[in-house]
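Project outcomes to date are best conveyed with an example. Our students and postdoctoral researchers have been running inverse folding experiments weekly, and each run begins with a structure described purely in tokens. The record below, which covers 281 residues, was selected by the lab manager from last quarter's runs and is presented without edits.
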């Protein structure tokens, strides 16, 4: 039976097509950045599902990049210390499973990239350290290279490093070979790829920059670059190198490829395979 017109309930307002459960929260927030993030959020949901978790299908990677960020709580009555960011890129060796001692002596030694525990599965192969970077998170909006971090935190360090890795992948260009970017921060990964939305105005500017960079990377190199999560401190060599680089960067020091080759050689000798530990993913 049809209700009389005067007793009918007004139709519930409809949300614009393609919006999510956080639409009202986004549109009611002042500032254009968060609304832009909301739009990128929907685009990311539609186009980056595979890339958020990494491709598990066939096809080997030519490049593997590990990123990390760190920050320590300030001591009482002391100014907050800067956050550090670290990045290491490996160019994968065609000699995937050759023992370290048998590598071609004409080239720099390659390093095993599989986890150094009983969970190691020898699937990542070996790689040459191609590039390293250690630096501080820039929080001055007027400084060159500022990408939106308003203060030093662990999260801004993680996102800063991830943005740098994506920009490097863009620079390498289409056809450079498949790439895998590994981060131990679910916050950085999910904010960048659009799985999570920022709360109010927390880090919204750096997140906006990260999402724009991610979309640019997807547009220029579709299905060539994956972002994957790796657990921290689980004896994954590349993650351990990135972690070391964040400490160096936070102290305003620099590092070279040779420095990290030496450091990684010592670390591998002190962390033989087969030790107990959690899986890397």
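After processing, the design step wrote out the following sequence:
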């Amino acid at each position: 039976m049809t209700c009389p017109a005067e007793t009918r309930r007004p139709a519930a307002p409809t949300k614009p097509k393609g919006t999510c459960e956080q639409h009202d929260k986004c549109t009611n927030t002042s500032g254009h950045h968060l609304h832009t993030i909301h739009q990128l959020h929907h685009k990311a949901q539609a186009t980056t599902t595979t890339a958020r978790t990494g491709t598990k299908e066939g096809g080997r990677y030519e490049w593997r990049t590990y990123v990390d960020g760190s920050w320590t709580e300030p001591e009482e009555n002391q100014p907050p210390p800067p956050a550090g960011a670290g990045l290491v890129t490996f160019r994968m060796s065609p000699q995937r499973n050759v023992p370290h001692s048998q590598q071609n002596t004409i080239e720099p030694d390659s390093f095993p990239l599989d986890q150094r525990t009983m969970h190691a599965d020898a699937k990542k192969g070996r790689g040459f350290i191609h590039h390293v970077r250690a630096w501080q998170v820039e929080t001055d909006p007027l400084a060159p290279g500022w990408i939106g971090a308003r203060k030093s935190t662990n999260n801004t360090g993680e996102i800063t490093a991830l943005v740098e890795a994506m920009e490097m992948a863009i620079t390498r260009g289409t056809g450079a070979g498949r790439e895998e970017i590994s981060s131990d921060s679910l916050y950085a990964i999910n904010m960048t790829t659009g799985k999570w939305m920022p709360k109010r105005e927390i880090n919204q500017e750096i997140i906006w920059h990260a999402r724009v960079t991610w979309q640019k990377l997807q547009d220029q190199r579709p299905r060539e670059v994956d972002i994957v999560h790796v657990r921290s401190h689980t004896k994954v060599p590349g993650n351990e190198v990135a972690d070391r680089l964040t400490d160096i960067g936070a102290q305003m020091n620099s590092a070279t490829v040779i420095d990290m080759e030496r450091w990684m050689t010592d670390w591998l000798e002190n962390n033989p395979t087969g030790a107990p530990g959690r899986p890397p993913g």
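The radius of gyration is 22 Å. DSSP finds eight helices and six strands in the chain. The training component of this project remains on track.
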